[in-house]
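Let's do one together. I've listed all components of the complex below, 640 residues spread over two lines.
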Amino acid sequence: MEPLLNIEDLRVYFYRPEGVLRAVDGLSYKLYRGEVLGIVGESGSGKSVSVLSILKLLPANGRIESGSIIFDGKNILKLSKEELRDLRGKDIGIVFQDPMSSLNPVITIGQQVMEPLLWHNLCSKSEAYERAKEMLGMVGIPLPEERMKEYPFQFSGGMRQRVMIALALICRPKLLIADEPTTSLDVTIQAQIIRLLKRMKEEFGMSVILITHNLALTTNFCDRLIIMYAGNMMETGKTKDILYNPAHPYTKSLLDAVPDIEVEKDLIPIPGTIPSLIDPPNGCRFHPRCPLAMDICKEEVPPLFNIDTDHYSACWLHRRA
Amino acid sequence: MEDRVLISVKNLKKYFPRGKAIVHAVEDVSFDIRRGETLGLVGESGCGKSTVARLILRLINPDGGRIIFDGVDITNLSEKALKPFRRRMQIVFQDPASSLNPQMTVGTIIKEQFAIHNIGTRQEQERWVEELLEKVGIDPNFKDAYPHEFSGGQQQRICIARAIALKSEFIVCDEPLSALDVSVQAQIIKLLEELQKELDLTYLFISHDLAVVKHLSNSIAVMYLGKVVEYAGKDEIFSNPLHPYTVTLLSSVPSIRGKEEEIELKGEPPNPINPPEGCPFNPRCPKKIDICEREIPLLEEVSDGHFVACHMVSDRGKK
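Okay, and this is what the predicted structure of the assembly comes out as:
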């Protein structure tokens, strides 16, 4: 089956006064149609940068150094600005962490939700109005027609995030990117938003990439996971395999270090801190904090070793003699 | 048992004027914290958790109720009379970077505590700073470095060193992990646990992360719209939650193990400027009955040490 998204050997560097920051350093993965992929990592792991590269939404000092991003048969890195703009908001929708700073404060909610349809010339203004109204209703905004006349500040955080989801889905994209969509929200609202994303996924059948630092959030939503650390993929596999049968020492350490409401356990902290990506450690980037580090880990970057069906781990422990 | 109570708050109230309106930030909050134990204070943003903490520390003054610290009513003490109590209580904030003065070295920041309360000679103060940094896992050789030279986790360790500098007995931890990376959070949790054991510290631990609260607390108070709606020992509240809000809150927390049943909580917390009549939770409550819209349910003890403010649980509702 042809994947919807195929990323190969992606490298994204940021040029800083202190040096070159290697935010994503050789990342490859595929996303299939209708699949929900979770990209999990801490800050600075490269999880957001890797996905923003798909839309080429990088800050001015960020550059895609090498690699290829094939989306729906097109190489995104070779597209012109106009072709790229056709893609954004139409074939790929995105929901960011902070809905307040992603919505325009001086334009009504109605206009903002209609804008992608009108911008991409997909329908008439009156039809756009009807579709925006319908979509706002679908994402759970009561009295959509009245609320369309209001401005973002008149919405609560949870409601704003619902508006963002309506905006991202209004053109029926093939891919929805949700970048930490619930991080600024309370836990009951977080549950509402994840449930909404799940329902929308069932309704429209698009592929979804969920970027999060919270492993527990992926349990009931993601089909497959990628665990990232310091710009590299550490492990990838089906969600259940990763959560219940983790292979990589980083994934294991992370699961041991995070308290879980349903599991009584002693927490085992991961010593040290996340390394600088300007001068990252040689070899495996987790080796300075890894309880099982061997000599080879300090020198050579581990490739992805096959653990089981669709389950890969970038750790020298899995090398077969 | 009674004499082991270090902090006791009774019917605490705090209102903030906003224009012509009044924000009912804290409305009748009562609980006890026993010495050497941790009370987890949970609830959604805007429910008044941080205001309660600031009231207990007398950083702001209450509009009603009493605060008893180690048997002494400190509610209306003058600043001067309060000073010996200030030594005994401290706070660790959410964002360590903004709670450390960027222009002072970490050594000076910690030493300031001794200067304010006039204790120790200069040499003693130097030595204490080094001991404190050592205790929280920071190399004392870095005492002349500035806060920005440390990572977020290390900065939080420095804040904790400052909080225990005066051998305070009571420490408010107000979302102390929220600004930290997941892999670093466990380090701080461990440190807080170790210090509590070693120094017999009493914590008020405020967090929106129920998994962390469950890990750290002995008892838990759940707040909703300025009120404590349920208050019990940790095991009791997690195994036998009684208030409909607690039940939905617990079921909203995602788990690696997945969730057996998810109860969707509809809507959002109401505005504390204009709280609903009756039970504050009634507009969202799946179990609402008539009385909930009229009468405010009182926090009543339904079993040993388990308090709930809900008409459906208390006897009056059943009648």
